[in-house]
Amino acid sequence: MPQNRYFIIYKPFGILSQFSGDANTLKELGDFPSDVYPVGRLDKDSEGLLLLTNDKSLNHHLLNPRFAHKRTYLAQVEGIPTSEAITQLENGVEINVDGKMYHTKKAKALLLEEEPILPPRNPPIRYRKNVPDSWIELNLIEGKNRQVRKMTAAVGFPTLRLVRYAMEDLLIAGYEVGEIREFDKKSIYELLKIT
């Protein structure tokens, strides 16, 4: 029986969360076993934590909405969100999901006082002298397609840069862009709070 493998990568901006295709895929980051796949996705213009594994039961657990797990995102947004906007994000907002309006679940949102310590993005976001930007930490227990971007836009503060920073206690603090670290099953299950 093949052994379960667990890789955490800091997915770079511009890379697709898949192995198939000619360019800009996970193949460019390293040589992974052929039965290992990403759990969930990060879209091409998002970066950060991506878990790759061949553990089918873990995959099922993390993608099943009945087993909600916390995902932490750091979003650099255009403008400086008001306390009303932060409250709206926390209470849930209406976003379009597959052509239907959807009210997001309650979340935790925080306007950060300082820019988080992250590796620089390549290419950097476009700097505009007369438009301030700021960072929000957003904790969600669901993962609809492009949800964070849709949520910040819904409250009037479009996302410029998006980084998935953590899943439960598994985080990418100290990772470089494109870095890969392998974990054992016990560590992964503990960090993801799976019993």
UniProtKB/TrEMBL annotation:
Its EC number is 5.4.99.-. Belongs to the pseudouridine synthase RsuA family. It holds the Pfam family PseudoU_synth_2. This is Pseudouridine synthase. Residues 6-154 form the Pseudouridine synthase RsuA/RluA-like domain. It is an enzyme of class 5 (isomerase). It comes from the Bacteria. Keywords: Isomerase. InterPro entries: PsdUridine_s_RsuA/RluB/E/F_cat, PsdUridine_synth_cat_dom_sf, PsdUridine_synth_RsuA/RluA, PsdUridine_synth_RsuA/RluB/E/F, PsdUridine_synth_RsuA/RluB_CS, RsuA_PseudoU_synthase, TruA/RsuA/RluB/E/F_N.
